[in-house]
Amino acid sequence: MPSLLEALLTVGHPVNLMLVALGVGAGIVVGALPGLTATMAIALLVPFTFGMNVVHALVLLGGIYCGAIYGGSYAAILINTPGTPAAIATTFDGFALAKKGHAYRAIVVATIASAIGGLVGVAFLLFLAPPLARASLQFGPPEFFWLTVFGLTIIATISPRSTVKGLIGGALGLLIGTIGIAPVDGRVRYAFRTIALQNGITLIPALIGLFCLPEILDMIASRFHRETAIPYRPQRHMLRRVWRLVARKPWLLLRSSVIGTVIGIIPGAGANIAGMVSYNEAVRVSRKPHEFGEGSLEGITASEAANNAGVGGSLVPLLTLGIPGAPPAAVLLGALLLKGMRPGAELFTVHASVTYTFMFSLVVANIVLLPLGILLGKGASKVVTGLPTTVLAPLVFFLSVIGAFAIQNNVGDVYVMLAMGLVGFLGRRVGFQPGPIVLGLILGAMCEQGLVQSMLMGRAAGTPVAIFFTRPISIVLIALTVLSALWPVLARVRQRHTRDEAAAHIHPIVEEKRDD
Amino acid sequence: MIKDRIAALVLVGVGVFAWIEAQRYGPMSRLFPQVVAVALVVLSLFLFASSFSARSRRAAAERQAESSEGERPDVRGVLLSLLVIVAWTLLLEVLGVWTSSVIAFVALVIILRSTERAAVVWRSVALGVVLVTGFVLLFRVVLRVPLPEGVLW
Asked: CA-to-CA distance for A313 and A257, rounded, in angstroms?
């Protein structure tokens, strides 16, 4: 109890408050640049904390983590390129809304959802960290395999025009993901004696290429938008209106935040998958699923609440067990160890005051994110929407080039970005969307590892197949997978049934009127 | 519709090639790529077959009508821009990020210009140079990313 009080007082110190704001601001800027992920934001800014005391360093890094995950939504909304992989699902509706002239509205929704999601994630971290961390350790290879299969069912949601093309895109992504060193026996695959391909296709350059280059070329192709690529329509009382709209969906916010937290807790899953799963669930339970992909505010809310909730989630196994839930948390682990703090029971006993100060600083970061995000978002949307295509198209490609390079300081990644961009551009001409390909690419390695390791485990136990279907968490995940895969069919049947019922109601009325 | 068929055939080729190539690997490292390759071939064949269905032909006709209603895309602009983008990427290490980006930026501004008014074009060029310089400095100095310097900068 004294530790909690001490932590509250420490976090309220003006220097700490300033550091949180500074961290959030820096995180937003880095996260908004395509290619610079939250992991890189923390890694790039860790050296600045070497001279600081442990509290100042952690408070700053926590702010950067929250800000960077949220900042990814700016690029997703304004240029259809997720600033961080966590914002992939935000592109589906964010950019559609920007193209209608409502970029700022999309950013405000993303900001509110991110702040609320972030707060829910931190609440879980504060109150339920130890039991949640223990539960996450129940995830073995079969559970990871089913988690990825469940993730792949999202393809049906994100490719409403053609499920077959979505599935082909997913398979292509999975296949591209197998390039490089095999996760189990270390064999190099599909590298064709090229050193650049031996390390595999790096996710971020591929993601930038798939989303960004087709968009640039489309901007160029449409002479209609030659003056300004993205229109801007200012609206009066925007904040109040958007707040009312978001506040009307408390269940959506809560559900997305809980999904984000839970997936964030599972080591290796992270915010990338959290946003997608949450988006899928939002479409599944929505009364207006047809609006998703066309600029739905619910879509942005679901994705952003989940990915920011994943921040708190990813810190649960980190602080309690020393296992990072996501790559940015792994960099934070390094920073903790540098400061002489070993994750585990020690953090909650010997260093309790510092640990709780860090947790409370995340609460402050998510509160600070609201005004700062809205302010920076307004500026960013005005700048981007004011740029003519002649400047915006080359600028976006320039940012893609340096973003892809900065991942590993490797020009090979720029070539990967370009190649994947061409694949994305040609694919788009034929009706293939980048979402399923990226989803396959993200889930591929985890899926393969889960499959092969489970088979090895099963073979050792004499039950090579049964191991996939007999573990309790696997059974839950299988049920979720079947439900998610069948949902589009069930929804269509339900829709038809409702239509028939409505028609049956109208006919008697029409006939009665005719009788009159 | 024809596009779908060509894409399906290309993807069947990719799947078959991936399956054959995977046979060279060990049992553990070929299992997953082969499963995915089979899925890719089956789905692509399904896409190929379904492109002959009446429903697919109707959808293709609707798409065709939609695209003919809109303005014709600037194919020349896209091809020229692609050429610049590819050259930009290949010259990164040779000329350096700043030089190659400024040259490519200017080339794209000229290709994409919607007006012959020199003042407007110059303004876009100037804005481009300022933005490229600003971001190169941000990455090199503040974020300490060693962007390629090449023979120039």
From this structure: 10
In chain B, the N- to C-terminal Cα span, in Å, equals 48
ipTM score assigned to the predicted complex = 0.89
Per-residue pLDDT band for A230 (boundaries 50, 70, 90) equals: low
Q: Distance between CA atoms of A271 and A229, rounded to whole angstroms?
A: 30
Q: Indicate if the pLDDT at residue A514 is higher than 60.
A: no
Residue range B69-98, pLDDT digits in tens: 555 677 888 888 899 999 989 988 889 899
| Spatial contact of B117 and A390, defined as CB atoms under 8 Å apart | no
CA–CA separation, A146 vs A469, rounded Å? Answer: 10
Cβ-proximal residues to A332 (8 Å cutoff; 6+ apart), any chain: A42, A61, A65, A315, A318, A324
Domain count, chain A: 1
pLDDT in tens, A185-217: 888 999 888 887 888 888 878 888 888 888 888
List the domain range (segments joined by +) for residue A27: 2-515
Cβ within 8 Å, pair A182-B25 = yes
Q: Do B40 and A213 touch (CB under 8 A)?
A: no
Chain centroid to Cα A320, Å, comes to 23
- Looking up tokens 């929804």 gives A491
- What contacts A256, CB < 8 A, 6 or more positions away? A113, A117, A278, A281, A282, A301, A302, A303, A305, A306, A309
- Chain A positions touching B16 (Cβ under 8 A) are none
Question: pTM of the prediction?
Answer: 0.77
Structure tokens at A261: 């937290």
Question: Closest to A222 (Cβ–Cβ): which among B73, B89, B104?
Answer: B73
Which residue of B15, B108, B139 is in closest CB contact with A402?
A: B139
Of A164, A390, A399, Cβ closest to residue B124: A390
Closest among A133, A130, A128, A125 to A360, alpha carbons compared? A125
Report which of A441, A433, A468, A438 is spatially closest to residue A453, judged by C-alpha positions.
A468
